[in-house]
Amino acid sequence: MNILIIGAPGTGKGTMSEKLIEKYGIVHVSTGDMLRESVKNGTEVGKKAHGYMERGELVPDEVIHDIILERFAQKDMENGILMDGYPRTLAQAEDLDTILASLGKKVDCVLNLELDEQVLIGRITGRRTCPNCKAIYHIQNMPPKVEGICDICGSQLVTRKDDTVESLRVRLDAYHESTKDVIGYYEKQGIVKNINADQSVEKVFEDITEALGECND
Ligand code: AMP
Q1: Where do the structural domains in the chain lie, given as residue ranges?
Q2: Interior angle at CA 145, CA 161 and CA 135, nearest 5
Q3: Nearest CA, atom 12, ligand 1
Q4: What pLDDT, in 10s, does the model give residues 53-93?
Q5: Topology of domain 2-115+171-215, CATH
Q6: What is the pTM of this model?
Q7: Best of 40, 54, 59, 167 for a ligand 1 pocket test (most atoms within 8 Å of beta carbon)
Q8: What is the C-alpha separation between 92 and 107, in angstroms, rounded?
Q9: Which residues contact 80 (CB under 8 A, 6 or more apart)?
Q10: Is the sign of the CA dihedral 212, 198, 114, 125 positive or negative?
Q11: What pLDDT, in 10s, does the model give residues 129-169?
């Protein structure tokens, strides 16, 4: 089953992706991760993408096309694909359909994680991270045992530079702007499933499993 997962920062997309990969044995295709890896390794793609990523802009569609073709050439996708952070534009969505069709595949289901903006702001601004071991806490939902101190390694916790209301607003606007065309494209195909992300992890995943069942019918 080939699934696309869409969700703003703070909707729990990362957690749900991990659970989907584990349950269905599908491969995770995250263009963000692939681009970061290319930048780190100084590849041609990395050199092309670097500036756009630093400015928080979208990397050109041609570059994304190339990394996707390269990724899909690997023969590890029999159980399906979980696409995360891709497609981000209408052109990428159309391109993906063409690439998948050439492999005898298609997008089966689009999971759209929805969360009220106020809840999202609370989730993100309450987040504290450990600069040393990268553990993540939340001042209300998952506080450390000692305020401001990492349970695991004892380091002083910090608020990430981009976990502020102002920065989140910018990221949310960019998110809505870039996803609305993509969601509209798949809505026309009748495969978008809106998931209420303001529930426990277990319940969100249960709803996702049910939605995937409906897509498979
Ligand atoms: P992410 O981790 O998905 O938020 O991606 C980090 C950055 O990589 C984004 O801000 C973009 O600059 C770039 N990026 C990732 N995926 C795409 C995509 N599908 N199309 C264009 N740019 C992308």
Answers
A1: 2-115+171-215
A2: 40
A3: 53
A4: 888 788 999 999 999 999 998 888 888 999 999 999 999 99
A5: Rossmann fold (3.40.50)
A6: 0.86
A7: 59
A8: 13
A9: 1, 2, 3, 24, 26, 27, 108
A10: negative
A11: 999 998 989 998 899 999 999 999 999 999 987 778 888 88
